[in-house]
Amino acid sequence: MICRQKSQARRGIAIPVIAICIIGLFAFVALAVDLGMLAISRTHAQNAADIAALAGTRQLSNRPGVVNSNLAQAVAVARDAATSNFHRNEQFTLAQIERIDVGQYLYDPVSQQFRVSTWYNAAENPTPPSGSWTAMRVRMTAPQSTYFMRILGVNTMTTYAVATAVYRPRDIAFVLDMTGSMQFSSLFNYGSRSHNPDTLIPRFGHYSNSTIQSRLISTTNYSSGAYTYARNNFTIYTPGGPPIIRNFYFDPANLSNPTTPAVAVNPANLRNAFHRWNPPESGANSDTYTPPTYDFTGYDAFDTTNSRGPTPAPYNFQYMTDSGGITYVGDRWRRADGSINKTDTTWSTSSTSTKPATTLIELLGYNISGSNVRGGTSGTTVITTIDRFRDPIWEQYGYDLDIVAYRAAKGNGPPLNPGSFSTLVPPQDRFKGYSMGPGYWGKTFFIWPPDPRAPVGSPGDANYVPGDWRRRYFLNRNGNPFDPQVDNNPSTSPGASTGFEGINQVLLNNAANQLTVAGFGTTSNPNWRINYTAVLKWIKSDPQVLPPNLRAGRIVYYTSIPDDVNTSSGTTEQRLDKVFWKNYIDFVLGWNYINSGYLYGLGDSWSIAATSIYQNNLNTWTGPSNNWPSARPYMRYDDSPNRPRLHFWFGPLSMVAFIAQRYQVSSNVNWLPGTCYESQCWQLKAGMNSVVDDLRNNRPNDNFGLVFFAASHQNGIRVPMGQDYTALKNALFYPRSLLNAINSGNTTSEIRPYNLSFSDTISRAEIPNAAGSTDPVTGFSYAFNLLSPSTYLPASTYGTIRGRRGAAKVVIFETDGVPNTVRVFNFRMRGYDSYYESTDSVYGVGDGGADSMNTAYAVVQQIVKPMATTNASGVDSGLSLPNAPARVYAVAFGDLFDPLNNSTFRTTALQFLANVAAYGGTGEMGATTIPDDQIITGTYQQRIDRLRNCMQRIFKSGVSVTLIE
């Protein structure tokens, strides 16, 4: 009994204990199951927060036109990303997104760290205090129902997850080649030949000769072996780009009075300076150098409204014929029979009615036998010796004479007596003193033979007689008009000659195949001078083929066409205009320009008659009947000088050649505006323009800076490190000294690139165009400085942002050439404040010179070294971080790298770039080239597209958006 009672008592105690144990057991089960489910819930919430933060941050953008850094769209994307994820077996709801904050992941220069200083609730749609949103934080909540913990009174448990995504910061240094080879597809002349493929050229007179035509039209690219020089895009579309001729403008404010300086105050008023009207065009093919076909209907050479002329001029102006309702404007050169042919475009034939007259003897219908002149084209009667022969009827009326009728009247006999013949051509065919060329050639006063009359008055005067261009536009060595009655002997004293024969000997001497205008003597004591006042009056006369002022790309070339070149009078602007025009006139007329590299090269001999200038004194003659006034002939009638190519042509073509060839002519400076289609520069700029847009749209935490390199022209920082997208674009096109003003909205400021001595008033780095030699060490050294956080670099040059410690460093180096020059830099070791200091010492080493390449490699290797943790003096430092090594990318650009051109230095240049990539951590050691997508060749548009795609791939090579929480 007692035992039974004890057993029952034990059972009574065990039951509560078991119950208690079961409760504890369930509690542990609850912890295991419910907490495990909670962990799963938190993982799901964290995944949703991570994905939402990454997706939302990726939508943040500085793209133009978006509101508040595209914040509304970014928040919407983040929400969609969060609710697209599953919490266990159900999608997250909007209610489970507790909060979305945005902030700016910015560099603190004091702590030299990146952080988000302030978060803003995106639901409140705040306005950024400055800069742009570059970070997003998403906080998720996930209520989790319990299973076993309900017995403890806990029905739900809530988990939280936070994710912070940021745009990973990068500092990018763009290093762009602005060396002279970047203009090789836009050179006017090189290698003693034209590079213009435009077929719209003069084909009348001596231009009808096929050899001369071949010297004016370039049909193939020129190769020097080392480099290829493509046909230029001066006047037509080519693979290099649209026509440069269309890049210049003028202010029409002083159109009625070109001598009044015009200052552009409203860019909207500017008009195209050389493409003065827009005839409909079609059929151009830039890839095949096919010019456009124009519809010149309605052309008017005297139009001043920029709607019908004067340039480009019609096709029939090539032949001086009338066609399609368009009447030729200017003096028509005579055919060999003395006729004016207004319909036949055939010039180079054996027929005297179509071929051009070569000499005055041929034009007037005489012939020469030995030293004697005989009557008629086939007559045998000797009239007199050639040294005294003259025709008084011709010398009285010149090109106003009806030469065909006169030749018929005199037959095979001598010249008719003075006053015995006065039949003239119709008024519309009378001598005007200029000939118009087709397209952009403009006008010339050169005609051969010269009109014999003395010049009278000025264009526009009632008594105006154009007369002999040699007497109107040139003066003797004393500055006086040439006088035919002064009897000097030019054969023994050519420098002292003031006689008419002296004009031909001094101006047109053919020695050494010089230009059409070529003389003896020195600059300080020349044998002839230019009558600038007369030339300027003629230039301003109708048709006005040159605008009253000229500007482009914030560069003003001239503000007026002056009346003279006397710089002792006038305002500063007027004096500068005088300097410009004097030098342009010198250029066109050949004063001190006797090199084959100018204006399509040297003058040409005439294949039909021997090129000759009489070397003995001319003598007076009273005529065959001794009843003429005793006088010397105005020139020897069989003189045949070299004929000009583009010399003597005042117009858009020679003007742009003058501006473009400044760096070839004298001071090694190119004055083409940075806004023109200079190739290959323009293709690079156009590609970079789209690259900037990609940076803005997709890389809001990337800073960037810009360096141009070219010895000795480009030496310094073009754009300091930062995020000024407008500044980066403007720097590609506008003068350096105006960038701050332009970036601030200035639309009117301009610079003059020269002073009263016609020397450069600006640094050679002023205009962003092609000039100088290839010194890559300059580009890499300044790239290092851009990316360095060094406080020793002046804020005036490098800005206030500098390279950010903690940001990944990237150098993108573009070149179109092979290294050939070295600029000396000293490396200042100051830990992470290290920098390069230029000595401005530059020396050439020749194409592919090892010194130029090795100095560049050394800087690349310095860039990728680890960044020091201290800024102590003497401590070496690069730019690489443990989690963000610096990278250097190499980009090959242009003709040199096109395998079709077979350039000698292509292999050398590619090996150089392959080594740069290898040292810069973006290529393999031992490689001989770089990836194909980093070699930019092809046509104009292909190069732009390939460059943009190349840059985008480089940008995408690193992680742009990353989680930091």
Automatic annotation (TrEMBL):
Query: Which Pfam families does the protein's record reference?
Result: Tad (PF13400)
Q: Extract the SUPFAM superfamilies matched here.
A: vWA-like
The record's listing under Gene3D superfamilies reads: von Willebrand factor, type A domain
The record places domain Putative Flp pilus-assembly TadG-like N-terminal at 15-57
Q: Report if keyword rRNA-binding is assigned.
A: no
Q: Which UniProt keywords apply?
A: Membrane, Transmembrane, Transmembrane helix
| Source organism, top-level taxon | Bacteria
Could you list the residue ranges that cross the membrane? 12-33
Record keyword Magnesium present: no
Protein name per its UniProtKB record: VWA domain-containing protein
Naturally occurring in which organism (per UniProt) = Thermogemmata fonticola
> The organism's lineage?
Bacteria, Pseudomonadati, Planctomycetota, Planctomycetia, Gemmatales
